[in-house]
């Protein structure tokens, strides 16, 4: 709790802190390597995003942590070769606030949170549409949908915009799939809240219309080992078996407000930190995003 309170105060005192803002304003270089081989990512900056691999539209994991090495460069990794480990340092408590009733637990219950704002002790998971070939090839943006989740508990992914705005739920493992619209040249982070420790398999579909009129799509499974005692080996070997759920009858999409004239897209980077009565719940900074109905 002391760590959470210190972190909360630091964020309140530095609303434009470099770690919350600078990493969002990234540029992905052309030709970054796609690296196979089992890898566990338990801290540092990670995105999921589309890439063309041998001409095929593919959802991959973009590992930015490799840049921490003196000669390191960011790389892309196959989803089935990558486990995102959410250690016990991610444990926070559900706030006593009706705005967070969608988390379904009791105020004060422990949950595992991959936050929208970077915590150096927790893997920081977002998404991007910034690969150079992707930006040149897709028309306007992509649609991402969480089509299924297997795990011991629930998963909710939501955005929190600035000025203590209400949370904006993007995905809920106990609800129907909601397509989320992502503009080209976008880099976004959100809050990922897991209700219990264990292995979670999260199936994500990403599709786009290309400038030549063709449509591309890929579906991959993200592997999470939630809790420090959860076996990462088990996360690698687990098989996704759930039948994809029916799509929502009125699908919604998240789109971003324009910021500074970024071509064809936005960077979500202004966030919020909320303090519930008796509990600290570190929420993230990201530029404001809103839901809109797809036509």
From TrEMBL:
Keywords: Membrane, Signal, Transmembrane, Transmembrane helix. Residues 1-20 form the signal peptide. The keyword Membrane applies. The keyword Membrane applies. Coiled coil: none annotated. NCBIfam families: choice_anch_M (NF038134), P_ac_wall_RPT (TIGR03769). This is Choice-of-anchor M domain-containing protein. The lineage of its organism: Bacteria, Bacillati, Actinomycetota, Thermoleophilia, Solirubrobacterales.
